[in-house]
Amino acid sequence: MSSFNISSSFKEARRVAIFGGTHGNEMSGVTLVNLWVKNGAEIQRKGVETKPFITNPKAVEKCTRYVDTDLNRAFSPENLSAPRGDNQPYEVQRAQEINRIFGPKGSPDAYDVIFDLHNTTSNMGCTLILESSKDQFNLQMMNYIKKAISPSSCLVLLNEHPLLKYSTSRSIAKHPVGLEVGPQPQGVLRSNIFEAMRVILKHALDFIELFNEGMEFPSCTVEVFRVLERIDYPRDANGNIIAMVHPNLQDCDWEPLNPGDPMFQTFDGKTIRFQGSGTVYPTFINEAAYYEKQQAFVTTRRESLVASSIRKV
Amino acid sequence: MEHASFSPVSRVAICGGTHGNEMTGMYVVREMQRQKADQTGSVSITTVISNPLAVDACRRYTETDLNRCFTKALLSSPITDSTPYEVRRAQEIDVLLGPKGSQQAVDLLCDLHNTTANMGMCLIFYSLDWLTLHIYKYIESKMTSAPVRAILLNISKSEAYSLESVGKHGFAIEVGPQPNGVVRADIFNMAKEAVDRTIEWLHEFNSGSTFEEGEVEAYTVVKSVDYPRDPTTSEITAAIHPELQDNDFKLLQQGDPIFLSFSGETVKYEGEDLYPLFINECAYYEKKIAFHLAKKITQTLPSISVKKD
After folding, report:
1. pLDDT confidence of residue A4
2. What does the entry list as the binding residues for substrate (chain A) (predicted)?
3. Residue B204 marked ligand-binding
């Protein structure tokens, strides 16, 4: 019998940030952070400094995803170590500034936890995005959140893919947590989506408070969806898309996609089928911002990760 | 009602991308161009991407809303260096498909739009026109899998500001819900069918068929309601209430919840029974509209047919 007596200990999580407006047209995060900047009572927890922060104010003002370049791809080592200068794209300057305030990335001074609030046009429901399968603290937090909001569902997307992984704003922190809630159109605020995100954050902060007070979280299994590959739209020689996500796949995030299932529909009505070798679980289906990133959806596979028990040092 | 006759509708314009982030119309036009659908029987079809710069940037507009630039005043205003792109473009379109109000204008202009509101398939008429209302009646009878609704705005010819007013006859096809920047297959298929049915009707009309007198239900917009706002900053302080969200065309009555504030209070509707539409349309935040309210009316249509020489 395998034993799960490996235990991890972490220092208390004292410095926590909540990022909104990393994409300026994803309204739940923008609205929540603006609310909490005015009155942060709701996000206060004993012994934790929780800082709400608008990461991309110019994009928020224009209600656009980004001004020059995607902020949520801008936290690469090259960008962060590049010399400061006004000639840098706005978001690269922002990334450097954010790295100064909440980082430096990879150093002991970096913030303990950063929650980065996002919306998607995809029918993903509530999703937590995990960047490392080895982050026991995050795995335990996500397990806590999932149990706390049950029977409502909150799924975990693991993006550890060496090529598809990207340099997110939250990656500055020791424990980066992405919150992705959809479906919501860009520029629109839906009450149910807003309140769902608010509830997830409440539980996340409760977890941190309990952890800091000394609670031990026993070993647990967490179901995750691991990113496998990005599937683009069929395109013509000029790069224009020649088909749309098929009606049978549209809105079916997290449902099994089997070889032979309809995947795309051309503009003149023909069906293009999925040619994979096995069943996958697609997500980020028809996300508005990903047309330019050559992505109609990503495929994932289901995995169970074991989190060791954790307690504070 | 007295029978009405109209000249043949032989020149049609199908326009998409009037708002550059409303993707359905743009792809319908592109597909029609790819299929080289420019002459079918008695009808010659011109397809136009109305706002190509906005389409390239995937934004509603670059400087000003193109679909408000077709007033007589703006169409005749002198072009200077400071003239917004969309005003120039409106004048270009007026040359291509108009001039508005003249004999050379296209017979019918059909403008394709999307909304983030849960409105399904709607046809929008800016004025009472028996011909286009008969097209609506036909489409509504043929597209039976979901409701097709008529929205009647009452804008006089002299005040008309939108693209379809360039044609001798015109209407907008508005389909939702679809986020900006996204093309959904189900929405595309609906819009494409509506365009195909329109052309089908025109062939019948041009060939001499009589379309019988009848009745259609339509929604006439009475007023708009803005979001609750902070009096000092004018920032929005509430979201559309979950019980109103997605319930376009469901009768709203006194006491029904309409907003849920960020601090948890419910704001209730006060007023006469009306039908809400364009609930939570993205582009209307800046126009200070959370939703429109409309009356439902029954409009009688006379029988119509083509004028015989």
Report:
1. 52
2. 72-73, 166-170
3. no
End-to-end CA distance of chain B: 23
Q: Average pLDDT in the A37-55 region?
A: 96
Give the closest of B31, B186, B260 to A268, CB-based. B31
Chain B interface mutation, best of A267, A284, A285, A293, highest count of B Cβ atoms under 10 Å: A267
Q: Is B181 in Cβ contact with A121 (below 8 Å)?
A: yes
A85-94, B32-41, B196-205: segment of lowest average pLDDT: B32-41
The answer to whether the Cβ–Cβ distance between B185 and A247 falls below 8 Å is yes
B240/A contact by beta carbon, under 8 A:
yes
Phi and psi at residue B147, to the nearest 5°:
-60, 145
**Two tokens at B131?**
């011909």
Q: Which of B86, B140, B174, B281 is catalytic?
A: B174
Closest chain B C-alpha to A54 CA, distance in angstroms = 16
Contact A250 B30 (CB under 8 A): no
**pLDDT of A2 over the 50 cut:** no
Contact B184 A35 (CB under 8 A): no
**Is A216 a known ligand-binding residue?**
no
- Which of B61, B182, B186, B195 to mutate to test binding with chain A, by most A CBs within 10 Å of its CB? B182
- Chain B positions in Cβ-Cβ contact with residue A289 (cut-off 8 Å): 181
ipTM of the complex: 0.95
Mutate to test the interface with A, among B19, B114, B183 (most CBs of A within 10 A): B183
A163, pLDDT greater than 90: no
Q: Do A194 and B239 touch (CB under 8 A)?
A: yes
Report the amino acid identity of residue A150.
S
Q: What is the pLDDT of residues A234-268, one digit of tens each?
A: 999 999 999 999 999 999 999 999 999 999 999 99
Residue B215 annotated to the active site: no
What is the residue-wise DSSP string for chain A?
A: ------EEEE----EEEEEE-SSTT-HHHHHHHHHHHH--GGG-BTTBEEEEEES-HHHHHHTSS-SSS-GGG---HHHHHSPP-TTS-HHHHHHHHHHHHH--TTSTTS-SEEEEEEE-SSS-EEEEEES-TT-HHHHHHHHHHHHHHTTS-EEEEE---TTT----GGGGSSEEEEEEEES--TT---HHHHHHHHHHHHHHHHHHHHHHTT--B--EEEEEEEEEEEEPPPB-TTS-B-EEE-TTTTT-TTS-B-TTSEEEEETTS-EEE---SS-BEEESTT-GGGTTTT-SEEEEEEEEEEEPEEEE-
Say which range, A1-10, B103-112, B122-131, has the weakest mean pLDDT: A1-10
- Write out the H or E segment, with its range, that includes residue B306: strand B304-306
Q: What is the dihedral of CA B120, A242, B86, A289, to 10 degrees?
A: 80
Specify the long-range contacts of residues B256-259, CB closer than 8 Å, at least 24 apart: B258/B225, B258/B290, B258/B291, B259/B227, B259/B228, B259/B290
Model confidence pLDDT, tens digit, residues A165-223: 789 999 999 999 999 999 999 999 999 999 999 999 999 999 999 999 999 999 999 99
Give chain B's largest Cα–Cα span: 68
Mean pLDDT of A134-152: 97
Residue type at position B202: L
pLDDT mean over A291-311: 96
